[in-house]
Each structure stands twice: as structure tokens, then as C-alpha cells.
Amino acid sequence: MASTTTGLPPTPASPPQTSRAPRRSRKGTPYPGWFYLPAAVVYLSIFIVPTIVSFYFSLTRWNFSSSEFIGLENFFQFFREPALVKGFTNTIIYAVVTSGLKVVLGMGLGVLLASQITGRAYLRSVVFFPVLVSTVGVGITFTALMNPSRGLINQVLELVGIAGPGWLTDPQLALLSVALVDVWKGVGLATVIYIAGIVSIPPEYTEAAAVDGASPWQQFRSITLPLSWPATSTVVTLSLIGGLRSFDLIWAMTRGGPGFTSDVIASVIYKQYQAGFYGLSTAGNVLLFIVVTAIVIPLTRWLAKKEVAM
Amino acid sequence: MRPATRRWAGAVAILASVVVFLVPFAFIVLQAGKDATDASRLTFTWPENPQFVQNFLDVLATRDYILIIAFINSTILTVASVAGMVVLGAMVAFVLQRRVTRWTGLINFLVLAGLIVPPAVVPTIWVLQGIGLFGTMPGLILVEVAFGLSFSILLFRAFISSIPREIDEAAIIDGAGPVRLFFRVVLPLLRSVVVTVIVVQSVAVFNDFVNPLYFLPGEQNATVQLTLFNFQSQFNTSFNLLFMNILLITIPPLVMYIFFNRQIVAGLTAGAVKG
Q: Do A131 and A190 touch, CB atoms closer than 8 A?
């Protein structure tokens, strides 16, 4: 901080060494607090205030004109109605499946595309491009490809003699099918994160290991895997946050169906909002908030600790 | 890897990438060129009666040219909200990085919270109604700015820490006030990260489906992602137009990617390599 002010025109009242930025009058600093103001107004009114009041409104029966305090009734309802419980468990399953697959496939593709493979530039672009495509567009496309009788996927399976399942119409399978499409769309991001992590590992390590006779698998196991931990940590965190909040892909592909078998908390929030149950919808939001913070915050702590330990 | 293995692995990977990643895109293009009955068969075949141009004109004309209105809406939304994120985000990041006060901890916490906490939907609508902006474009722009600020601030802050303070001091000695210092000296130095933020955030806002769905309801207000959603039910019998629509809204991100590939990847992998 002191170095900031040494170059300032010295104020006669105090010697330059002691005039630190925070102590000087607000007017004098070149980094004025009011720079926060425009962002703070938008952020507080549109994001923080709704988040805080959501805790109150989740305890009410609410239409915008009036609200009636009903205690924890909305939350009880969430854990009583099978449709809502399903949404809750599906959210966890969806987030775990998508982030697990993104880590495994992203790391595999990252190792492959960080190496000197032929066609590397093409492969990197083609794996990454789906990240930038409209989620709803991807959802509609795969809904067509996954059509049980006419879709391309089952047509191809039929050629090799397999009767393809009803990807989106089988209640057991619908959520997992959507999760697979989510992985298809998101694995490119995980891959580029892993590539950035892997190319930052000094090549001397693998060279030395190779000289000592380590097999490629041993090199991966003992060098690449532990030293790309920051990338793993980023991928896990990002895809868990994204997976728990996921809505648009599920909505575009199944609308939570068949029945409510592929509903997640975010789609329940939307359905209850449309049905006019604003209090219940907000309770869903609070529940999502609790799930996300209860999973993501301890996890990032743990990931950071492991990183330091290595 | 030995050169032979390299080529062999490359060939397998390219083949797999064609099947997994290019076939779905080829399917979109093929569907967009078919006639209605042909498209409804959902087969992966060349269009029997190619009518690419006809489908293009038809999809534009649907519902009184709603798609053109939607493209205009999406452009306004993207430009205005990304401009807001850049200017407001850079101002916050600048002061946050340069001056440590007892508020710094709280502000850092709030910025991180913006990345993690899912927005409370119905209370946000309630607030927007209270200030008379629910269902309006300015309201949606504010929402996008509020939800996108955190990510912008983090990217800016990381970059500003690499700009020497001596530059600030030189400008101050030359008589620049805070506003001149920021807008005339610091912001121009942020050029490369500004490009990154603009590209990444404009793709995100352009592709955003959830926020327009909640905060800007109504046919005439539709953004491009919502036209897809609205057409999905109407176009059950005309898949060709639905896929033509998908094709059209995929073009802007594709153009962005072709020109700003490096910035997009840099922006999205920030933080992956720590230390």
C-alpha cells in the first residue's frame, strides 16, 4: 500500500510515508470507493436482496399481493410429495454423474490432445465447439437422435442387432440420457481445462521418468494425475455447480418427464412458479441453495487442502 | 509417442470425433434442408427435395417474422448487458485489487457467492415488479449484468494485478483524477482481457435460455433461444423449420469461435493452472 502513495503529490499535512490510502480523505485516493457503487446497486438489488428475502418467502404461502406465514410447511411438502422428492434425488444423481464423467473423459481427452497426436488442432476445436452451442438447440437435436423408433442412435444399434432402448421415454433411463447429452456438450470445457493443466507440467519430469524406465501408465499415474490436480479441482467444482443448477437441457429434452421421473429441483421451481405456488417454488430455490452450498463449499475446501498437501 | 503410434492414434481419434461430434451437427444441416415429410422421418439421409433457401425464408416468415424480431432483441440484450458487465466489472476489479480496506473481505465473499449461489427466481421477479422493470428489456439486461458480474470481476482482477502500480502513479503525477486514471489509462491496458470477457459473456448471454424465460415473458419479447422453445411445440409437424432455426442461432457462436478461439479458451480455463 505504501508504494502506492509515495508517488502522489505529498500532502503538506502529513509526511508521505504515513499517508496510507485508507487513512486519507475519501477525495484524495486514486481508487475511490464510489467505483463500487454502480455495480453494487445492480448486484445488491437484483441478486443479493432476492436471495435474502427468499428465505422469508419460502416460509409463506405467497402470491405477489399477499403472503401468509406457514412455517416450514413448504419444506415438509417438498419431502412428502413423491414428485418433489424425486426432483431432489435426481438433482444429486445428475450432478454426480455428469461431473464424474466430465472428469474421467475430460482427463482422458486432455492427455490425448496435449500429446503430439496427428490432427490435434482439429480435434481440440471439434471437442470444444459444443460448449458454445445453444443448449436448447443441442437438446432438440438429441431428442430427435434419441427417438426410440426413428432416431439415428437406435437405427444404428439395430444394424448391429441390438434393440435400442427408449432413451427418453423409459422412466429408468430418461435422466441418464439427458446427463449423457450434458456430458457431450460440456466435456470440451473439461478437456481444455485439463490441457492447460497438463501442458504446465514441466516436461523434465516425464523425460526423467522415461529415462528411468517408467511405462506410459506409470508416468500418467505418478506424474500427470497428481500434478494436474488444480485442473481436476476446477473441473469438479464447475461441473458440480452447473449440474446441480441444470435446467435448460432437461427442460428442452424431457420437461421432467416421463411423468416426473427426470425432474430436478430447478425444473420443479419452474413448474411450481407456473402453477402459481410462489412460496413452494421459492422453497425449492432455498433448498437448491442449501444443497449447492452444502456440497460445493466443503468440497472446494477439501480440494484446496489436498492441493497444498501435494 | 513414436510417429507411427501418433498417426495411428490420430486416425482413430479423428474417426471417433466425426461419429460423436460431427454427426449431430451434420444432422442439423441435413434436417434444415429437407421438406416437411422428409424431415419428420428423422433419418440421417440427404434431403430428397433439397429446399434450403425455401426453409430459410419460411422460418423467417413464421409468426410475422418473429425470428427477426428475436434476433434484434437478442442483439440488444447481448450488447447492452455485456457492456454493463465490462464497465461495472472492471471498475470494481480495479478498486478491489488496488486498495485494501476492511470491506475487501466482504466484497470478495460477495463476488464468489455470485458464482456459486443459484439465483432466487420468484423473489427476483418480485423485486423487478417492485421497481417496474419486470417483463421489460432493461429489466432483463440488469438481471444478466447482475448474474454475470462475478465472473467478469474475477477475470479483470487477475489481469489488473499484473499491471504495475507505477503506471497509476505516473498518471496521478501528471494530474489525472480517478476517473481519468481508470478510463484513459487503466482500461486501455486491459484490452486483451476486455476482449476475453466480451467474447465469453456475449456467447453466454446470447445462448441464455433460463433468464429470458423467467424475466421476459411474452411472444413479442422473445429472444432467439425462446423462439426455439416456442417453435418446438408448434413445429411438431415441420421439423425442417425447427432445425433451420437451430442452424441459424448456431451461426453467431460459430463466428465468434472462428475469430476468438484463443480468447474464449483463455477466459474459460482461467484458474485451472494455479500458482
A: no
pLDDT in tens, B191-240: 989 998 999 999 999 999 999 999 998 877 889 998 887 777 665 668 88
CB-side exposure of B32: number of CA atoms within 13 Å? 21
**Candidates A42, A117, A193; nearest CB to B269:** A193
Query: From the list B9, B14, B249, which residue is nearest A137 (CB)?
Result: B249
Given this model, what pLDDT does residue B6 score? 79
How far apart, in Å, are the Cα atoms of A165 and each of A80, A142, A149, A181, B138? Answer: 31, 14, 9, 16, 46
CA proximity to A229, closest of A101, A110, A115: A110
Cell of B110: 460477495
Identify whether the C-beta of residue B256 lies closer than 8 Å to the C-beta of residue B264.
yes
Q: Which helix (H) or strand (E) holds A61?
A: strand A60-63
CATH class of A83-305: mainly alpha
Per-10-residue mean pLDDT of chain A, 310 residues long, equals 39 42 56 92 95 93 86 88 89 96 95 88 91 93 90 89 87 94 95 90 89 89 89 91 94 88 93 91 94 92 78
pLDDT digits 0-9 by tens, B24-39: 999 999 999 998 888 8
The C-alpha cell of A109 is what?
481427452
Cα(B76)–Cα(B202) distance, integer angstroms: 11
CA distances from B144 to B138, B140, B218 (A): 10, 6, 18
A-B contacts at Cβ under 8 angstroms: 287
User: Alpha-carbon dihedral of residues B33, B35, B37, B43, nearest 10 degrees?
Assistant: -20
- Using alpha carbons, list the distances in angstroms from residue B237 to A185, B241, B242, B243: 27, 9, 10, 12
| Chain B residues near residue A35 by CB distance under 8 angstroms | 91-92, 94-95, 178, 182
Tell how many helices (H) and how many strands (E) occur in chain B.
Answer: 14, 0
What average pLDDT does range B173-198 have in this prediction? 91
Euclidean distance between CA atoms B144 and B271, whole angstroms: 23
Out of A39, A252, A307, the one facing B88 most closely (by C-beta) is A39
Residue B234 has a pLDDT of: 66
Chain position carrying cell 419460502: A58
Q: Give the start-to-end residue ranges of the domains of chain A.
A: 83-305
Range A112-126 burial, b when 16+ CB lie within 10 A, else e = bbbeebbbbeebbbb
Q: Which residue has the higher pLDDT, A8 or B113?
A: B113
Q: For position A6, what pLDDT does the model report?
A: 38
Q: Would you list the DSSP string of B164-215?
A: -HHHHHHHHHTT--HHHIIIIIIHHHTHHHHHHHHHHHHHHHHH--HHHHHH
Q: How far apart are the C-alpha atoms of B27 and A194, rounded to whole Å?
A: 29
If DSSP codes are grouped into helix, strand and coil, which group holds residue A281?
A: helix
Closest Cα of chain A to B103: distance in Å?
Answer: 10
